[in-house]
Here is the input.
Amino acid sequence: MTCNDYKDLLMGYLDGELSEGQKQELEKHLQTCSACREELESFRKLIAITDEVTLLEPEDKLWELYWGGIYNRIERSLGWMLFGIAAIALLIYGGFETVKALVKDPTIGIILKIGICAMIGGLVILFVSVLRERLFFWNHDRYKDVRR
Ligand SMILES: [Zn+2]
Here is the structure.
């Protein structure tokens, strides 16, 4: 038997699947061949690592963390989007109603009317701007996370 033949037996040896004859022959060879002893050692380490990995189930943990993060992000951005859209809609509606009432009201001076209209318009623009900024940063956060 050559070293390669013995190397084929090593995994079976560690799993206890060899016949008594094969086992004795391999053990005899291991006493004289350091290359095969090293191979056996590296197999042992591999099995130890594999056992550890199976025990901790890090893949599950990683996926949990990964999806947890993604889910949080989607949830938050959805929250922001709904909030933003609702706020803008309410502001536009409320602003429109206010402007209508203002224009009809003869007791309010023209300067005050223009001032209030401008203020409402400014608020709407601010809300749209803040929301766009949030969405922009959310997009960039995603790439930061991927790199980590
Ligand atoms: Zn050998």
